[in-house]
Amino acid sequence: MVYYPLSALMLAGIKQFLIISTPEFLPQFEELFGDGHNLGLDIQYKVQAEPNGLAEAFILGADFIGGDSVALVLGDNVFYGAGLSKLLQDAASQDKGATVFGYQVTDPERFGVVEFDEHQHAVSIVEKPKHPRSNYAVTGLYFYDNSVVDIAKNIKPSPRGELEITDVNEEYLRRGQLDVQVMGRGYAWLDTGTHDSLLAASSFVATIEKQQNLKVACLEEIAYRMGYIDLQQLEKLAQPLKKNDYGQYLLRLVKEESK
């Protein structure tokens, strides 16, 4: 599952990652990715000992972030669409303020919901409202300038005891520095936080891959196409996998690119 959100950040041009997870699961991610050098990445790891909210990521990762801008993606989110890479690279290139993405859903009460005025400017963001003012959910992909670290340190826990990412976004909105980009027709965002949505995401990815004969969120391919690794390294990554469909896909890519 982690390949999907990681691929989104790679498509944004990001090469340095901090994976934050529980003490139980973090060692599994370390075993899977190591330090990331095989993919041309720099991957580090941090434990979140308690479920204290998404915004705690910026506190836990303060040393990793340093003086840079930062992006956050949730581990159960899938993004797909033509032009996605440019959309994300544009967001990542902003050095002031925050950029988040709105996506129309049928069950907005499950998410942070953004309300727009008649000019499509965001006027409010409410976390999991009982009576949503729009059907636009804020996706689990966020781009922030360096101010986010101090903002996260100064917000108060919500009634459920968590540092809410919505409170971070509300602070940027209050400052007039929140850009909400709408992912409209042609984009797919799948939040796999329920059994039904996980099944829907699996069916969607399977259909795309079968119809187009392409892989979705293939990190090795993305690393190659983004210039993080060369063709020789791509083939090296493919060889141990050559007995399965995934490895065969990579070897076919190597052959096509060698022409």
TrEMBL record:
SUPFAM superfamilies: Nucleotide-diphospho-sugar transferases. Signal peptide: none annotated. It is an enzyme of class 2 (transferase). Residues 1-206 form the Nucleotidyl transferase domain. One of its GO terms (molecular function) is glucose-1-phosphate thymidylyltransferase activity. It holds the Pfam family NTP_transferase. Catalyzes the formation of dTDP-glucose, from dTTP and glucose 1-phosphate, as well as its pyrophosphorolysis. Belongs to the glucose-1-phosphate thymidylyltransferase family. This is Glucose-1-phosphate thymidylyltransferase. It comes from Lacticaseibacillus thailandensis DSM 22698 = JCM 13996.
